[in-house]
Specification:
Layout (H helix, E strand, L loop, with lengths): L2 H4 L3 E4 L5 H4 L1 H10 L1 E6 L2 E9 L7 E6 L9 H7 L2 E7 L16 H13 L4 E8 L7 H15 L5 E6 L4 H8 L13 H17 L3 E4 L12 E2 L5 H8 L21 E2 L19 H9 L18 E2 L5
Parallel strand pairs: 1-4, 1-10, 3-11, 4-5, 5-6, 6-7, 7-8, 8-9
Antiparallel strand pairs: 2-3
């Protein structure tokens, strides 16, 4: 891949871990330095330099469950003229599934605090992933979604939903919840129809646009349109920036996101959600956090090894 074909003015922070919640000091340190180093998650010896200067990084997309720690640093993005918006995950699962995530109403309070700072247009609510189990079936989700939509509708304009993708790395730990009735199952067409039709109707009743993240099947018949977390149309509307709208081929086939550059690292989030695809080992995530240096050039210090191959900028 040539350097030019990989360059994007959008920086993702991050699909791989919650930078706003756990690593805001590192983020602002790299922002001031103008770059970050990021290891290829599948070959840590390959390291990319991601430029974060205002000339290179026009828009930051933050993925979070707790935006409060990064709020004091948003002023620097404003002063730099760099745009940003938030993808804020907020669900209401049993503690067994989300042992350390902020719980409602604390999470709702944080969501509103963020909206007060950046405005509702710059927050996308993620009700995602939807895990169907004996204890969290269709009725559970419709009730939970309605409770949350009722209190979030004035703080956002859009909600994104998706069904759980059964990655191999999470299957074992989720199957261990069978005794609690929380082991997931693959829903049939009738359940998917009732769930998605119900969610779409509830979203509309609260004035929310609803989209589907990486749908494995056509959900338009239920009232949902395909969504994109790195959304060229939203970025154009919010920031006047025209992106190359072609799909990011590094993402899963059903993903509709445009190209971006991710500065995060896997095995670095401490929320411990059992369905999380980005954490293979919670012990490793804790160790990476304990060893983290906010002044380091990379998030977890897994770059710059002897013999490492520094790739061209933005590769």
């Amino acid at each position: 891949m040539s350097q030019a074909s990989a360059i994007s003015p959008v920086v993702s922070a991050s699909r791989r871990c919650d930078i706003p919640a756990f690593y805001p000091r590192w983020f602002v340190s790299r922002l001031r330095a103008g770059f970050a180093l990021v290891a290829n998650p599948f070959n840590p010896a390959q390291v990319s330099r991601i430029e974060l200067t205002p000339d290179s990084a026009k828009v930051f997309v933050f993925w979070t469950r707790n935006p409060a720690p990064i709020l004091p640093y948003l002023r620097e993005l404003d002063e730099n003229g760099q745009g940003y918006y938030f993808l804020h995950t907020l669900l209401d699962y049993p503690r067994e599934l989300e042992p350390f995530s902020p719980r409602p109403p604390r999470a709702v309070e944080g969501f509103h605090r963020l909206a007060g700072r950046v405005g509702p247009d710059k927050i996308v609510w993620r009700y995602d992933p939807i895990l169907l189990s004996p204890q969290t079936g269709v009725d559970f989700h419709l009730r939970a979604f309605e409770r949350l939509a009722r209190v979030l509708a004035d703080a956002t304009r859009r909600v994104t939903v998706s069904l759980l993708t059964p990655y191999r790395k999470i299957a074992g730990r989720l199957s261990g919840l069978a005794g609690a009735g929380l082991a997931p199952y693959v829903p049939g067409e009738e359940e998917v129809s009732r769930l998605m039709t119900g969610l779409a109707g509830l979203a509309r009743s609260f004035g929310l646009e609803i989209t589907a993240c990486a749908p494995q099947t056509d959900l338009a018949r239920f009232g949902l349109s395909p969504g994109a977390c790195i959304d060229p149309a939203l970025i154009r509307r919010l920031f006047g920036l025209d992106l190359d709208a072609s799909k990011d081929l590094r993402q899963r086939p059903a993903c509709g996101c445009a190209k971006s550059r991710d500065i995060g690292a896997y095995d670095a989030c401490l929320f411990g959600c059992l369905y999380c695809y980005a954490t293979s080992s919670f012990a490793r995530a804790w160790a990476n956090y304990q060893n983290h240096d906010p002044a380091a050039t990379s998030l977890t210090g897994l770059v710059g090894r002897p013999g490492g191959n520094l790739l061209p900028a933005d590769s």
